[in-house]
UniProtKB/TrEMBL annotation:
<dbReference type="InterPro" id="IPR001647">
    <property type="entry name" value="HTH_TetR"/>
</dbReference>
<dbReference type="InterPro" id="IPR011075">
    <property type="entry name" value="TetR_C"/>
</dbReference>
<dbReference type="InterPro" id="IPR009057">
    <property type="entry name" value="Homeodomain-like_sf"/>
</dbReference>
<dbReference type="Pfam" id="PF16859">
    <property type="entry name" value="TetR_C_11"/>
</dbReference>
<dbReference type="Pfam" id="PF00440">
    <property type="entry name" value="TetR_N"/>
</dbReference>
<protein>
    <submittedName>
        <fullName>AcrR family transcriptional regulator</fullName>
    </submittedName>
</protein>
<dbReference type="GO" id="GO:0003700">
    <property type="term" value="F:DNA-binding transcription factor activity"/>
</dbReference>
<dbReference type="InterPro" id="IPR023772">
    <property type="entry name" value="DNA-bd_HTH_TetR-type_CS"/>
</dbReference>
<keyword id="KW-0804">Transcription</keyword>
<dbReference type="InterPro" id="IPR036271">
    <property type="entry name" value="Tet_transcr_reg_TetR-rel_C_sf"/>
</dbReference>
<feature type="domain" description="HTH tetR-type">
    <location>
        <begin position="19"/>
        <end position="79"/>
    </location>
</feature>
<keyword id="KW-0238">DNA-binding</keyword>
<feature type="DNA-binding region" description="H-T-H motif">
    <location>
        <begin position="42"/>
        <end position="61"/>
    </location>
</feature>
<keyword id="KW-0805">Transcription regulation</keyword>
<dbReference type="InterPro" id="IPR050109">
    <property type="entry name" value="HTH-type_TetR-like_transc_reg"/>
</dbReference>
<dbReference type="GO" id="GO:0000976">
    <property type="term" value="F:transcription cis-regulatory region binding"/>
</dbReference>
Amino acid sequence: MTRARAAGGSRRRPGRPRLDADEQILSAALALLAEEGFQRLTIAAVADRAGVSKPAIYRRWSGKAEVVAAAIANSHRDRPDPVGDLRQDLAAELHDVRITYERTVPIAMVGTLLAEERHHPELIAAWRRWVVEPRRERIAAIITRAVDDGELSPETDAPLMASMLIGAFYGGYTQNLAMDDGWEWRVVTTLLDGARPHASTPSPEAVDGVSSA
């Protein structure tokens, strides 16, 4: 028996720290999902891209569907903090949508998830649970706060307005519209101008001095 074993058991083989390996695996899975699609994605390819062994992945997840779902959940954890200004907070959220798809998660990946919905509904479910729903809830909360503060009409449908804001990106992308750095502000301004409370407009009868009594 060696001195090392007698003192404290066998030495641990050097390797990548667990947390770092998890991040590498999930990042690799997300990148390959966007590049290859779910059907052609393999655990072997994920392991090769992440620089780990296949058993290292299977110790953490049962298969590629579970790995991809975890990668989706892990893909968007940093979110903008509201500052209390309605226009600025909404523009920041919309900017985050655009930057996410431009720099982090290619929008083609969403098409892959939708294409796989019939056979692997857990993938799009993970996307909705960890990315879509939290974002919509955050935007709706910003709008609800503005309604409570009197900035927006009491009749404002916060969840619907949140969906309209997010939908502006998908619509702009599919139409190949230019989405420059001022795009978010234009969308927010266009939407808010139609949602702010207005002074009541007098009826034609009132203007003409005709009473309805």
